[in-house]
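Many introductory courses stop at the sequence. We go one step further.
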Amino acid sequence: MERPPDLFCKLVIVVESTIQNFKKAELARFARRAQKLAGVSGEIAVLIADNHRIRELNRRFRKKNQPTDVLSFPRQSGGDIAISAEIALENAGLHGHAPLDELKILVLHGMLHLAGHDHENDQGEMAAQESLLRKKLKLPDSLIDRAHSKRSQVRRDRRPARKKR
């Protein structure tokens, strides 16, 4: 009996930007696992590019004229993920983990968007799913966790100083 095709095996990673000690095969293995755990079937393409290219994509598709860390473009079956290598490297340094770990965080975040999640409108569903998968995949803090803690920090910083008595 012939084995049915694996719906999760079609994955392409395109690297347009240099990242030292980057292990494309390791990221591909991770992306396949994240794809399966997120429940995304079909072909996935992951682009790792510089800020200029990501800004172009963000401007064209989201009408935002600035680079961003990760963009996701779902298709009926699968989709595309575009990652800024520069922002990934910056965030890895800022958060104290390896650039490859940051790329994995961004791939997972993108996969969840391809699976139909939208953290801006889902009352925390994507954040919960990302947190669960991040633990399963042994990853550092997720993008959503970092965004929430950054907003909390900004709110604390904006509070007026208490007067001493």
